[in-house]
Amino acid sequence: xxxxxxxxxxxxxxxEREQVAVEASGAEVDEAVRAAHAARxxxxxxxxRAALLRAAAARLDGARAHLVxxxxxxxxxxxxxxxxxxxxxxNQLRNFADLVDEGAFLRIRIDHPDPAAAPPVPxxxxxxVPLGVVAVYAAGNFPFAFSVPGGDTASALAAxxxxxxxxxxxxxxxxxxxxxxxxxxxxxxxxxxxxxxxVHGFDAGxxxxxxxxxxxxxxxxxVRGGRALFDAAAARPVPIPFHGELGSLNPVLVTPxxxxxxxxxxxxxxxxxxxxxxxxxxxxxxxxxxxxGEDGDRLVTALTAAVSDTEAGVLLDAxxxxxxxxxxxxxxxxxxxxxxxxxxxxxxxxxxxxxxTVDAARLAAEGPHDLLLEECFGPVTVLARYDGPAGAxxxxxxxxxxxxxxxHLSAAEERGEGGxxxxxxxxxxxxxxxxxxxxxxxxxxxxxxxxxxxxPAATSTATSVGTAAxxxxxxxxxxxxxxxxLLPPExxxxxxLGLPRHVDGRAERGA
Length: 511
What we know:
Layout: E1 5-10, E2 15-22, H1 26-38, H2 46-62, H3 64-75, H4 79-102, E3 108-111, E4 124-130, E5 133-137, H5 151-159, E6 163-166, H6 172-188, E7 196-199, H7 202-210, E8 214-220, H8 223-235, E9 242-245, E10 251-254, H9 256-261, H10 263-275, E11 287-291, H11 294-308, E12 313-314, H12 318-332, E13 338-341, E14 344-345, E15 350-352, E16 354-359, E17 380-386, H13 388-396, E18 402-408, H14 411-414, H15 420-428, E19 431-436, E20 474-480, E21 501-503, E22 506-508
Parallel strand pairs: 3-21, 5-6, 5-8, 6-7, 8-9, 10-11, 10-18, 11-17, 16-17, 18-19
Antiparallel strand pairs: 1-2, 3-4, 4-20, 12-15, 13-16, 14-15, 21-22
Protein name: Aldehyde dehydrogenase family protein
């Protein structure tokens, strides 16, 4: 049987633009992984890795106009949004290059022998080493930042791991364009191009996670697809780490005091956040707990005005559009659900933003309204109106893990008055990032960032954004009573590479 064609499609029209490739066979997946595995030694030198990361950033910047044009044609995300995403992606590569130069991510620990200790301590030297070939499953809603050149690729390279990317079907041409740029960056730095691999097709993705030479995987996508791959990674004869970002409702809790003080500000911020990128952000606020009564009515009125002013938008593909339309229709038909602004079709290829309201008590017990506690990808959110602290807690107790949780407080509560600290602690149990007074959309690439959370937000405790993401692709090794001449240079006495280390319990600064 001939391999299926991979087409680039314009989501604004639904028309095929060009055939980009064909879906990879099992043999082609095997070839890509084996080639990456054979090339891994080229990434052993930290200086080479840092140079490669910077060269990749430079190549992306140099092709900016063409990249933005290509991605917009396949995603309809718009040149302004895509240009900003490309800047973030290039800067992310440079951030990881700086991390590699500095070397603290190796987490070097040295304990010299202490025969007087009980029990005696032998000579022990510990550092982190790369796992091996990493599979990256690209996301549809971020053709740069969470795809071929994105955070998973950047962090894996920083760790010293080659990557094989399973391209997302929503932007195959952009993926191939970026692959060519990354391989040119490899040539610029004397690295084999095989440290970057790319395959297309659903079956190729399944074959990739099952390959015996694959060491780990990173995924951004749906709960259903991510869980299937996670289970496959665990069911291998030799299981591998699977760092998946699967789904998130990203609850927001608005206190009565916050609504009383600034209903319009909260409503306008919510409208902007839930419709950003046509609601196609993994951190979109999908459930908002607001007080019942007159204060809640004021917020609903202000949100109605703000969302009604939002222009219709195009979703990433027809499949996502169909799922969005079916999802909002099914949710709006539930008993007790109102649609102050009805989300739905606004044209042949566009959708209009909207929101639903429901009493929080309907969500506090299992039943048909559980559908409102599932992520609906697109420009819609649910306002759950709670009656007092007990009503809010009853709903929070039913929520699964999330990437983010957000808290909006009154000025007095922000000063620590009332039960604000307890609310913050309550939301901390639900999410990997807690936002106070802001909105969750917009994930800064920074050392202190955490993008993950309890399942189903993620399948591990690691972050996929920020420099700490490098930790996903490393494992620690301790060397005991190993002769100096045989030790890796990073662990030798005298610190010949000038790295940050802890020696006998004390920090040792690099040169």
